[in-house]
Amino acid sequence: MKQIKIGLPFKSIRTTMLFSLSTLIIVTLVIFFWISMRYTEKVILDNSINYTSQLIGQVNRDIDTYIHYMENISHLVVNSHDILEYLFDEKDSPKEEEGYLYGRIRTQFQTVVETREDISNIAVISTNGKCFINDGKERINKNIQWENIDWYQKALKGEGSVLTPNHVQNVIQNNYKWVVTLSKSLENPYTGQKEGVFFIDLNYKVIKDLCENNKMGANSYIFIMDERGKMIYHPKQQQIHYGLWDEKIQEILQCKEDFFLTSNGEEGMLYNISISEKTNWRIVGVAYTTELMRYREETQQIYLLTAAILLALTLFIVTLLSGAITKPIKALKDSMKEVEQGNFENMDVEIEERMNFGISLGDMEKKNEIGSLLRSFHVMTIKIRELMEQNIFEQRQKRIHELKALQAQINPHFLYNTLDSIIWMAEGNKNKEVVRMTSSLAKLLRQSISNEQEEIPLEQELQYIKEYLTIQKMRYKDKLEFDIQIEPDLGATPILKLVLQPIVENAIYHGIKYKDGKGFLGIHAYREGEDVAIEIYDNGIGMDGKRLNDIFSPEGKTKGGGVGILNVQMRLKLNYGDKYGLFFTSTLGEGTLVTIRIPWKEEREEIDESY
Asked: Core-most of 516, 554, 567, 609, by most CB within 10 Å?
């Protein structure tokens, strides 16, 4: 019989399922991401086109408003009886400045100029040279042939208003500004002929400010051109004049819609066009597509994050489904790995299998080999767990005995040094001091053996040290002074017994003893965050760097560290953890500071505070 081989890309069925479904999901998400980004770019571009169109449309309306105002002024002036009489009445006196008409015209023109900052000049000129400019004090520029100026001739010959694009107004003497001029002919009421021109100048800066204040972005800009392509305003006017910058003039004039897209090197550009109904000017807004799409990366990140969340969610569901299919065998494999790593806490195989199959292991054992294997494995793990728990208990008891041995190792060392002091004083026939020191020693010994607790209150331990220092002060007389300070709320803080005494002892015997002059030893206990710091400092001979580095090494026992220092450090770390213990700083010839750091507790239950 021919065997049928099923080829799978992976050894694990679950891995094959995960790989196939994950590939399908990822491909779907990539297609979704691509379509979403394309659609988003289109929406952003459409919104940008609409916004830019509205912006330049507003600029167009503002300019038309200015032109409309100028036309209204021109209509009033052209039909003003006072102005026509002032210009064309031959009977007017030579001193017209003092006349009635002069005053009324001046008031009218000044009102226009002073109330509208956008108006630079307002004037009337007749062909006979008679004129009235602004406030009446300014005069025609005699250095030019003003009657031959293009806009003047067009206005004189035309029927309506003549709008002249940006130019320097040189008709008025000593008043040369960039302006846009609207001019209109004046008809002599006495002859019926066009014998004068009214003109009003719009400040070119108004148009410039209007375009610059309505930019779409940092690099975008607005420019204005007439129906023939002549530039009326452009922010890069000088570059265009010298040929260093050009615009798509022909494309703008031939464009049938209100926008078009083009490219400038590697960057795309959007041109929005609005045509004025009054002036036929083209107001063009130019924006770089890269600037319009400046939020594209942020949008991409949002889509990527969404895709990642969807991918994670679907993979999670796929994992659950594939796991439910392959869970019986995988449960046994995972359990074996847990045992291999020494983890017996989550090894309830029986409950796991009951959940998946709805039957007990006993029933399963009768049905298939997997059930029998699970049953044997379950029994084995229970036995191993029991053996490990027994071993942990034995190790805990061993640690307790080791701690007690460390404490017992300190006590004889302290007793030996204290008795040595008493012998030294007895040899000197200092009987009262011997009695006092022996009494203090009795109190110390009674305290050390009367309390079986491993921890005692900090104030009790400091009282113990105070008795010890009293004995040492009697021995050294004026050579030793001490001071003990403790913050009021730290008295009940629990601390290991006989922690301070070895430190104080070493400070005296290896520091103050060899100092010339009076020695001082201070103890200061204070709270520091969630810890308690106990500083023991002396002004003894101090230590050099090498000796300080060897303070906890086995060699340190013979170099001033002593068995007591090493034992205290071991006890503190065993009881409180590695972040706590002894910390030394010392300067040779100046002294040593030892900081004992322990965790802060308000009090410890069942502390025997009898003293």
From this structure: 567
Query: Are 594 and 583 a contacting pair, CB within 8 Å?
Result: yes
The residues, any chain, with a CB within 8 Å of residue 10's CB and separated by 6 or more, are 16, 19
For residue 607, being part of any structural domain is answered with no
Cβ(548)–Cβ(586) under 8 Å? yes
Q: Is residue 509 part of a domain?
A: yes
Give strand pairing partners of 587.
Answer: 591
Task: Tell if the pTM clears 0.70, that is, is over it.
Answer: no
Regarding whether 453 and 341 lie in a shared domain, the answer is no
Q: What is the pLDDT of residue 164?
A: 82
* CA 97 – CA 444 distance, rounded (Å): 122
Q: Token pair of 569, please?
A: 């450090």
Residue 606 has pLDDT above 70, yes or no: no
Is residue 333 domain-shared with residue 451, that is, in the same domain?
no
- Could you give phi then psi for residue 193, rounded to 5 degrees? -105, 155
Give the model's pLDDT for residue 526.
94
pLDDT category at 450 given cuts 50, 70, 90 is low
- On whether residue 188 sits in a domain, the answer given is yes
Residue 49 domain flag:
no
Supply the DSSP string of 14-52, one letter for each residue: HHHHHHHHHHHHHHHHHHHHHHHHHHHHHHHHHHHHHHH
Per-residue pLDDT reduced to its tens digit, 17-72: 778 878 888 888 888 878 877 777 777 777 777 888 888 888 888 888 888 888 88
Greatest mean pLDDT range, 7-16, 257-266, 519-528 = 519-528
Task: For residue range 385-434, list pLDDT tens digits in order.
Answer: 788 788 877 766 665 565 555 455 545 655 776 677 678 778 878 777 77
Give me the long-range contacts of 77-86 (CB less than 8 A, separation at least 24). 77/122, 77/124, 77/198, 78/184, 78/185, 78/186, 78/187, 78/198, 80/108, 82/108, 83/124, 83/132, 83/186, 83/198, 84/186, 84/187, 84/188, 84/189, 86/130, 86/132
User: What CATH number should be reported for the domain holding residue 244?
Assistant: 3.30.450.20
Check whether residue 555 and residue 408 sit in a common domain.
yes
The total number of structural domains in the chain stands at 4
Q: Determine the structural domain holding residue 249 and report its residue range.
A: 208-292
Same domain, 426 and 534: yes
Could you tell me if 52 and 216 are in contact, meaning their C-beta atoms sit under 8 angstroms apart?
yes
**Tokens 């071993």 map to which residue?**
391
Residue 176, both tokens: 């040369």
114: tokens are 């002073």
